[in-house]
Amino acid sequence: MRVFDRSNALAGRWKYFAALGLLLTLALVLLLPATPDGPVTWVAVSSQKLEHEIGLVGKIEPVETTIITAPFEGFALANELRPGMQVEQGQALLSLDTALLEIKVRDALANKLKMQQAIEVYEAWATGQQMMRARQALRVAELYAGSLELELSQVEELYQKGIVPRNERDALKQQHNLQSLELTAAKSELKHVQAAGKGEARTIADMEYQNASIAHQQLSALLEHKTLHAPFSGVVLSLGAPQSTAGEAGGLHRGVLLATGQQLIKLGNMKGLKVVTQVAESDVNKFVLNQDVAIAGDGFSGRQLSGYVSAISQLAVQDDNAGSAARFPVTITVNAPEDGDFKNVRLGMSVHMTIVTYRNENSFIIPHAAVEQAGDAMFVEHRENLDAPVVRREVTIGQSTAQGVEVFGLNSGFVSVRSL
């Protein structure tokens, strides 16, 4: 008869469970990845708006400027313009004396009439005096040559009969030969005179007449510009040459002699405004055309304007300091207000601009310590809630911020941050 020993049975079972637990522990150690030492903190992450901004400063300028120059040489008459003065489209700005121009117009007209006379001569060339003289000379040479030929034939008959001496016949023959040469020269002269009325001389006369006509026409048209008018409504930016200082007449006082093409008035078109600023080479590639710009200024406080990037220069501003970083001009066009009026905004005012260089409405930002690198890939430990299982997700790094780093490939939940 066998006696059941309960204590021995329980001891055997505990040994079995201990061996099984040891095997499970070894399996977890081998299969699960090693984790860094230190406590784990689960940080909540959710979608949020991310923007990167760059602040710039500049001054208000007109969207368009034009320079009015002297159309011809002349003396300036009365001038009542001043820098900063508003002008309306079509308004008379400055008048010029036309005395010197009228002299040039008359000279051009006289030259045109001379060329016209030359053309008329060629048009009537076939019946002109030169052609008549050439034809008359040829006719006389033909008649005289015919008379000598008849006389020579008669003398030759008499010479054969011994009535006329030989020296008389030879003299007449020589005279006939000379007249033949004169006849040939007369024919050649007639051809030359005929060709002169149709050749290069006629072409040159035609071109000289055309040039004289155009010169007279252009000078006459300048007389219509003796009074200069504003091409658009705007503001007088400066007067005279560029070196003129603000507030001075810039050499446009009454009686001053102006040269053709000399700068007289610089106008700014107030239908639009712009701001030209400079950005460092480290930031210039963050700008693209049509980027939105917020504009504010102390001169029009309480009112904010908007604009957009309209031009980015490909050429850096010249700087004599070789060690300084390059800076590139950027132009911001100011959007017209709804009422179309730039109230309290004046040229030269200083403005502060804010340009958004990056925007993501659904950005996920996590602490830098939550990102683990394995080779070239980036991973985070993520769980949808604190009770959900942990999932190791591969992410892509985006923008870096003071709060953390932007990642792509993640959704709302919690990420683990391990303290070292």
From TrEMBL:
Gene3D superfamilies: 2.40.420.20, 2.40.50.100, Helix hairpin bin
Keywords, alphabetical: Coiled coil
Compartments (UniProt record): Cell envelope
Domain of life: Bacteria
Protein name (database record): Multidrug resistance efflux pump
Species for this entry: Pseudomonas psychrophila
Upper lineage: Bacteria, Pseudomonadati, Pseudomonadota, Gammaproteobacteria, Pseudomonadales
